[in-house]
Amino acid sequence: MSSPTDETTSAEPAPASLDAGQRVAPSRTDPLVAAASRPIGGPLGEHAAVGRHWFWTPQRVGLALATLALMLCWFGKASCIQQYVDANGQTQLDWRSGRPYVAMCYSDVVPLFSAERLDQPGTFPYRTSWVDDAGTPNAHVRYMEYPVLTGLFQWANAKITQVWKAISDTGWLPGALPVAIYFNITAFWLALAWLVTVWAVGRTANRRPWDACLAAISPLVLVHAFTNFDTLATAFAATGLLAWARRKPAVAGLLIGLGAAAKMYPLFLLGPLLILCIRAGKLRPWTITAGAAGGTWLAVNLPIALTLNAGWQEFFRLNAQRGMDPDSIYNVISYFTGWAGFDGPLAAGQTPTWLNIVSGTLFLACCAGIAYVGLSAPVRPRLAQLCFLVVAAFLLTNKVWSPQYSLWLVPFAVLAIPRWRLLLGWMLLDALVWVPRMFYYLGTDHKGLPPDWFLGFVALRDLAVVGLCVLVLREIYRPAEDLVRVAGDDDPAGGVLDRARDVVVLPRRRARHAV
């Protein structure tokens, strides 16, 4: 590493096309938004009074659109909480004839209610255990399989469900099967978490608040907001980024730590922060953030780890022993090439050693490459750009890419690449993977689809994410093409990094030209 001269310090962005504080109007700058605005009068006029409406601010418009998208998502999942009365007069959940796959309404929330023993009174995550495959050689003891904050979230919703059911039995509240009540209660909190995510994205975007509408109306939200519990983590990650942007490193660390206690991926934000803080000589704020994140994660996890250690380890044990997911690139390669080198089918309790090594090594290699980019680019990259690259690298190299994981990318993508047509195209393609996935699980015996269709869509989705990564790298090395910097900003999410001078920059090899 070397200390750069004045000529190699972080250059100023391209000349600002807007006055300081002036908002970017997407209807003027983005062809898709301009075309969409025609039915309501066309792009924003030159003399329009911007920011003077007493209620409909960009933030509130984004939240209203997010609410509409979440309502549509709930209606999409509602088919899976329908009830029927069986021949014995008992009310049952109607999952007959492959309803979750035919109606494409599947949500992990519904089966986990009984699978994690949340439907039984007196149970507690990480203490309550059960035996899978009892009476067979593969029998093994199981516990709650989610990180602590997500496990406690499920347990709390189950307790609220019990109270709701007791009151509904007296006639004071509408009644239903406990699993349907549990799903609706869970969906309410998950919807609130996504609204927080959209709010944080809009606040972080600074002079581009309308970009939050991209997160609000994302096709991925329409499909996956209630597929699992991932909006909890997106809310913590997005608000952690906002806190860093507001120069509150301790609060940022607190929120990142809570996010890591719900899903591990918010911890990845500390990597890009470290690289950019090294480059700008701002290690003290990073140390505060990292310390607060680690302390918060320990505060949430230690009580369970010390008192219910076997249950607490379940999340880590299952992740180590889990084979390649149907949505992973490894499964695509294995299926289309016929190569079974990624450990192939595994017996219960067997660890896919080779797959774990390959996946971990590839991710670490990607992180090393991203670190080099962060330290060698001609202008210091924006924080959202590196965060997007790290999370995308994890998803592409990981052995598991559950469909709802794509929600992780949405806030970072909106802040890193505010190109509406491009992002909506990727999000639509990613959301459409759900269709062949559901019909693949339905099975060809029940008029489902063969694996080729599903895995073909997975490959296209992966290529689309790789394409977005290439675009981010291009804009890092050509900041004049970065829409955020063209508008006059340096790094809206950067906090102490915004417009800071470089202290450490790695020298780059210059291209050799023929003489």
From TrEMBL:
<dbReference type="InterPro" id="IPR018584">
    <property type="entry name" value="GT87"/>
</dbReference>
<comment type="similarity">
    <text>Belongs to the glycosyltransferase 87 family.</text>
</comment>
<keyword id="KW-1003">Cell membrane</keyword>
<dbReference type="Pfam" id="PF09594">
    <property type="entry name" value="GT87"/>
</dbReference>
<feature type="transmembrane region" description="Helical">
    <location>
        <begin position="453"/>
        <end position="473"/>
    </location>
</feature>
<keyword id="KW-1133">Transmembrane helix</keyword>
<keyword id="KW-0808">Transferase</keyword>
<dbReference type="GO" id="GO:0016758">
    <property type="term" value="F:hexosyltransferase activity"/>
</dbReference>
<feature type="transmembrane region" description="Helical">
    <location>
        <begin position="422"/>
        <end position="441"/>
    </location>
</feature>
<feature type="transmembrane region" description="Helical">
    <location>
        <begin position="179"/>
        <end position="201"/>
    </location>
</feature>
<keyword id="KW-0472">Membrane</keyword>
<dbReference type="GO" id="GO:0005886">
    <property type="term" value="C:plasma membrane"/>
</dbReference>
<feature type="compositionally biased region" description="Polar residues">
    <location>
        <begin position="1"/>
        <end position="11"/>
    </location>
</feature>
<feature type="transmembrane region" description="Helical">
    <location>
        <begin position="354"/>
        <end position="377"/>
    </location>
</feature>
<keyword id="KW-0812">Transmembrane</keyword>
<feature type="region of interest" description="Disordered">
    <location>
        <begin position="1"/>
        <end position="25"/>
    </location>
</feature>
<protein>
    <submittedName>
        <fullName>Putative membrane protein</fullName>
    </submittedName>
</protein>
<dbReference type="InterPro" id="IPR016570">
    <property type="entry name" value="UCP010361"/>
</dbReference>
<feature type="transmembrane region" description="Helical">
    <location>
        <begin position="250"/>
        <end position="276"/>
    </location>
</feature>
<feature type="transmembrane region" description="Helical">
    <location>
        <begin position="288"/>
        <end position="308"/>
    </location>
</feature>
<feature type="transmembrane region" description="Helical">
    <location>
        <begin position="213"/>
        <end position="244"/>
    </location>
</feature>
